[in-house]
Amino acid sequence: MSSYIAGADGALTTVGASVPTTQTAACWVVVMPNGRFAYTTIAGSASISAYAIGFDAEITLVQANGRAGETGAGPGDIAITGNGRFLYTLNNGSHTIGAFEVQGDGAIRPIPTGATTPTGANGLAAR
């Protein structure tokens, strides 16, 4: 993942070099409503990576190994609630929805849901 600062004219300036997830096949990204953390689904590794976002927009992995949480097979889409308390993944390979509680330090804690999705589901939204 890389971070950028958007200027008043919309032009982007790169903040720093890319910070790899250390996993396989990063997909979608969400940013916390407060802008402090970003999360990406890792389809090939059935996981989520978490990044801390500094005031200067510099990003660093929350966990050194890049694995913030385990998902079902083939996570694709990811969504976060408006209050930033919960994170959800659409796990296409296992036809499930993963749920996580976001901690104050950016770590995530799994929440059992048992939620399943129909074959072919390809989008996820959270409120």
Automatic annotation (TrEMBL):
Domain of life (superkingdom): Bacteria
Gene3D superfamilies recorded: YVTN repeat-like/Quinoprotein amine dehydrogenase (2.130.10.10)
InterPro entries associated with the record: Haem_d1_sf, Lactonase_7-beta_prop, WD40/YVTN_repeat-like_dom_sf
Protein name: 3-carboxymuconate cyclase
